[in-house]
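To close the chapter, one final illustration. This time we ask the reader to focus less on the individual chains and more on the assembly as a whole: which components sit near each other, and how the overall shape emerges from the parts.
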Amino acid sequence: MDRSHDRVMKAQRSTQRWLFALPIAFLTTFFVYPIVRIMAVSFSGDAGIVDSFSTVIRTASLRGTTWFTLWQALASTVLTLIFAFPAAALVGRYQFRGRRLFMASLTVPFVMPTVVVGAAFLALLGPDGPLGVDLRRSVTAILIAHVFFNYAVVVRTVGGNWANLDRTTEEAARVLGAGQWQAFRRITLPQLMPSIRAAASIVFLFTFTSFGVVLLLGGFGINTIEVVIFREATVNLDLAVAGALALIQMVGVAGAVYAYGRSGRQATERSVSASGVVLRPIRGFPARFLQLAALGISALLLAVPLGGLVVRSLTVGGGLGSANFSSLFSPDRTAVVTAPWQAIFNSIQIALGATVISVVIGTLLALAIAQRPTRLSSTMDALVMLPLGTSAVTVGFGFLVAFDWPIDLRTSPILVPIAHALIAVPFVVRTTLPVLRAVRARLREAATVLGASPRRVLALIDLPIVSRAALVGAGFAFAISMGEFGATAFLVRPDRPTLTTAIFRLLSKPGDATFGQAIAMSVILMVVTASLVAAIDRFRVGNLGEF
Amino acid sequence: MPAKEVISPPSRAPPLETGVRMRLKVPLAMAGLALVAAACGSPATTEEGPQTIRLLTHDSFAVSEGTLEAFEASTGNTVEIIRAGDAGTMLNQAILTKDNPIADVIFGIDNTFLGRALDENIFQPYTAEGADTLADDLQADETVTPVDFGDVCLNYDKAALGALGLSPPESLSDLTSPAYAGLLVVEDPGTSSPGLAFLLATIDEFGEAGWEQYWADLKANDVLISTDWEAAYYGEFSGGAGQGDRPIVVSYASSPPAEVIFGDPRPLVAPTAVVEAGCFRQIEYAGIVTGTTIPYAAGQLIDFMVGIEFQEDIPLNMFVFPANTNASLPQEFVDFTTIPAAPATMTAAAIDQGRDRWIRAWTEVMTG
Amino acid sequence: MLEIVDLTVKFGDYVALDQINLELRQGETLAVLGPSGSGKSTLLRAIAGLEIPDGGEIRWEGAVLGTRAPHTRGFGLVFQDYALFPHLDIGANVRFGLEIAGLEEEIANRRVAEVLEMVGLSGFHDRSTETLSGGERQRVALARALAPNPRLLMFDEPVAALDQHLRARLLAELADILHDLSTPAIYVTHDQTEAFALADRVAVLSEGRLLQVGEPERVWRNPASIEVATFLGLENIAEVRVQDNVISTPWGAVKGTMAPGTHRIAIPAASVQLDPNGPISAVVVRSIFVDGRYRVELQALNRTLVTEVAGPRPLEGSKVSVTIETEAMVVIPS
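The assembled structure is written out below.
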């Protein structure tokens, strides 16, 4: 059947290979190769791979951990989808005052250091908190925090997709007698499925490998595989068992990614609105109700804990004041952070580096995957998700054993943005691919007939359209890098203070002042990230809507 | 620039790891290195001239501005700090790279990890100039030099205990009495370094035969376990900067002075205090990495780290105590804490032997 | 200029185009007329190079195009859904092909202005495609195709989505433009009025086969088959017997000259007239007001006969007499 684009496809074949070259080189060098090397080293000791696996399988607590890891990730994914859906619908369908700000502020949770958020949640979920129930050290607390961290993933991915849907299909359904709900369920929802699947897979991978949240909020005895890997690798110093667990984790992740890939295949063709502006003003009861629900959930889930942090950062000795900030920027002899400006600057620099790398690699990958369906493109589609689900210890140690030759990169500053980019690339791919697939074949044909070679079609049609979509991914990439600490902690890196390491250092010195300064630093991180994400969002114009 | 001395690779490198490297890298490079090494002969102990010294350390390492610069100015060397996460992560990184080290000096491996480090032969012998000024009981091995120590001790919230009409516990055993039920928060030794230290203190106190029963009693007395120090101190402890409701926490002997120094507003006396019994002393070591090409400069750095200037800079930056007995302490450290006279100690080898087993047994007791 | 020889395109087992033979001369506009699914879009796409033929050849000025890549063919194609580039403004859309060709900016800009004027969109240069109406989009698509001076222009149902009034106006303008340009053009449509309005010749396509090619009037007068006749909108198709200048139709016998024997014929509705002295009696079944006239369905000898009258409105159920202009009868070969 696929003879239809034979001509174009022949040219596409070479274009696709050419596009894949750099991403494959990147992922092989900075992901596959280090993992293979560290695994080889891990299993080369006295306890070989077989012993380590049998240890893992025999130990009951590790089996329990595996099961818990899986179910909490599934539960977190479903809950995030449910809670974030109203907001996704709101930004996907309606234009309202403050919409852009709303979108940008959603990314804030993403960058907040787990320790800080943990503190905020502990205050809220404690017996004296507004909920009035003691949810500390419970699975419920973990799930709530997971929804908090991943809320933006769903809202931005699904909402962005929604804004691009051809509204006429839903209208057609309404005219054919479908009620609002029916039209949504039978027409809109199926069209949203690719983005829902994309968001769900990312949330699943994130929560499957959850570390800080589980450590902080779960309390003793509640572990994910990631926590156990950390424990084996850095406390028990047993790399073989850590390696075995990391392999189990990767197999689980690969399985999820594979399942996702299979389920998503039939839903690649989507209609994109051709009729321009599709966002409507909020009018009527259902729209108002939706707005109320979306903003209400967002406020409760995001604004309350974050607002609490802002209030805490402005609290000095019982009253309000800016001393936490001013003392941060006028270091004295007992100052823990001596160069806050430098830390802010370094963080932004690393984040920009990670953003550039992940946007370039991610866009090339998306372009290549979208060219035509091949075994290679579906493999790459899945492979790119794996870093999200790979334990940070494994990657960090892998870098260390892999990059001493031909150039010694082990202590190079570029490994930090590269490690961040590995986590961010899937976001770029997942946000650009649906848009790219929606660039109608007609547009490419029109350009071709006008004389554009396949490569020029790519450069003049696909790329400009996709670059806007890539900006969503860029916003994520930037935010991820700004707040990342887990993976960074396992990298050997030059001594350059960043916002997150400064917060870590402040928190390691007990005292009201250091705690206040740590919160103030977190608020700075929050503000810097939100403004830069908002700035990135501003570039998004054109009739591909919010994407 | 003078020719660099090349040290021959360590003879005790595990054969398998070398094997992997040999397969994955160009064997010629290794052959070439061996030739150069053979030609150069024995390790150098003479001056190499100004060098860049790579110092691998953990995330908690901190030093005042100007301190390292003074070292650089006096020796002409440059210090490049490389961060590596926490102490355990750093040790593993040092082990993974021992055939081709990423650093010349490592600082921050403590006695709970030292046994493994010595086993893996990642340090080469060195006696620091001024080693005689360091407290004798901190010395461990000819390869490493003690730089600082910190006692992991029970801290308590003075006001909260007072309100309960309780006096501070005087021994570990007190904590199992009903009066202290539900008051203590500790860290999981499987994920937290003070948690491990406290476990070692209880093992030291009650012996192999009795420690598990002690923990079972603590559990019966409603001990709370946090996964790391931040969660325990900020989340559960009621004293000082803590936001929780437990008045006794496993923390450091330096925490009360920190509460004063970083108090907001700065209090006249510390709101928390240390229980002198049941402390475990963590000792941090520095060592010259086996295989460094600049052992002389590396030695200079270690000499500097045990010298008065660096030693007196330690307390306010890392909140641990200097190993140098001549170093004077900041006033807050004199006023608001006690250095326990007889903290629990254990040889590095004993800790290395038992750690894994103890943590698993502890986990068994506390979850069972 | 363009020669299509035995062109066959298959999609799997489905034969989209079956041994098509066509020729296009300099300056000629050819309308390809066919119902949906007839393969007419595939024909355009094959000529453009967007489909690879499974058999036969497409030649341009004698040279076989074969598998030559579409972007090297120098043809222009206007899509039914316009396919305007959403990320470019109108000027940039029109300039696209010129930029690809590497034209100097100044020349390109002049050309863009020229074609925008040609399609009546002067001053739309900087506007976004989103702000346009359907007709304006169509004009932009046309301007974009015209701008690089293609060797061949192709239109795939370009006005199908527009309202009738706009369609008529655009067709007239398009006819003028095509006339002035002397660029050969292929115009694909399912609407015979569009085809007849524009085309120098019409090709009728059905189920991938070319049924007939010829000048509009000739095709109209001499449809090659009943399929063609039906598709051209010829009505009152019937079998007649002719003997001694009497034509026996299913509606009754009329006088007229025709070769003796049995024929299949069609009678254009306009050639059936109400006439009180007419030889055929009928009953009015339905009257519909269309384009200022009444289209009337009659029943004569239990067969439907369609006619058109200016007025007054024939009342349903009334009895009428009818004559047939036998010289207007179209004979369809069987």
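Chain B has 13 helices and eleven strands. The domain at 150-281+332-367 of chain B is CATH 3.40.190.10 (D-Maltodextrin-Binding Protein; domain 2). With these observations in hand, you are ready for the problems at the end of the chapter.
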